[in-house]
Amino acid sequence: MNIYLKVSNATVFCNGHLALEIAIKALGLTGEVITTPFTFASTTHALINCGLTPVFCDIDIDTCTMSISKIENLITKNTSALLPVHVFGYPCNVYAIEKIAKKHGLSVIYDAAHVFGVEVDGKGIGTFGDVSMFSMHATKVFHSIEGGILTYENEVFKKEFNLLRNFGITGPEMVAITGTNAKMNEFQAAMGLVNLHYVDEEISKRQKIAYMYRKCLKTIHGIKFLEDMPNIRHNYAYFPIIIQENDYGLTRDSLYEKLQSYNVFTRKYFYPLTVDFDCYKSKFQCNIPNSRYIADRVLTLPMYGELELDSVEKICQIIQDIYLNIVS
Ligand SMILES: *Cc1c(COP(=O)(O)O)cnc(C)c1O
């Protein structure tokens, strides 16, 4: 695992979410943590479950990751860390985040659930920040049925992570800290080891699919998508499109339903924003116009290694036909 991810240390867990909570605990975070609402429930829940106050930073429209220029305004004397999310296989601006964290003495934990195998300038994405959490849930690019990994360059965390995932037990008659049960089991580990042989093949198949989507979609008005970034190895975890209803003629929700009638099943991912969940509604003050813009317009198209390139062309043709029916 260390070798594939190009990291110095990796500890495995039963799932990504508990790994994230354990990272938060081990770093001893307090008060406020700056994060984003354009993520899976897990990121926000982890902070709340650990008794912390999430402070929501907006995302950039072009990358869907934390907006660097908006972070510093949110830092207060109570801020202890940043918890940015690498989204869809696209990394955050890790260098800028490192700079801000250093300047203000903040810890950095990345939610790296989407970026297994991603590299920045040839370095494993998990080498950035203090700790990164990868998920190996069955829905991810690489999976161990369920599973999580924490990666970290500083070896001091290893002991604490091992203790926290196993009830804090230090000996047959000794329990040192309040831990939990977050151990990865052997069956999960076996599945992960088998799948590790196929992950590069899976990523290269997905790359071809992503390129085909881009080729077929680029001529359709009002459909935007993310491009590859320079010096990044992407993993093509998802293929999100942004539907600009003024140009396309239909809203995201209408396209979502129309595609279903053609048996094309897409996901509104991430929608709703975590701050709009029933459990968090109106609990947090936040200024997040870009997050709202993307959450209302994003759709992730089918993406898996076995998806035929012909099917990709068909899906794009359907999106084109729907557009033509509207404009004609
Ligand atoms: C999948 C996911 C998680 C949670 O991982 P699990 O392994 O399912 O617990 C956290 N954050 C993001 C962004 C995810 O996509």
TrEMBL record:
- Which residues constitute the catalytic centre? K140
Q: Give the source species.
A: Sporomusa malonica
What is the recorded name of this protein? dTDP-4-amino-4,6-dideoxygalactose transaminase
Write out the entry's keywords from A to Z.
Answer: Pyridoxal phosphate
Tell me which Pfam families the record gives. DegT_DnrJ_EryC1
Q: Name one GO biological process term.
A: polysaccharide biosynthetic process
- Top-rank lineage group of the source organism: Bacteria
Entry-linked InterPro entries: DegT/StrS_aminotransferase, PyrdxlP-dep_Trfase, PyrdxlP-dep_Trfase_major
Cite the PANTHER family for this sequence: PROTEIN RV3402C, TRANSAMINASE
Could you state a single Gene Ontology molecular function term? pyridoxal phosphate binding
Recorded coiled-coil stretches: none
Per the similarity annotation, which family is this? Belongs to the DegT/DnrJ/EryC1 family.
Kindly list the positions at which N6-(pyridoxal phosphate)lysine occurs in this protein: K140
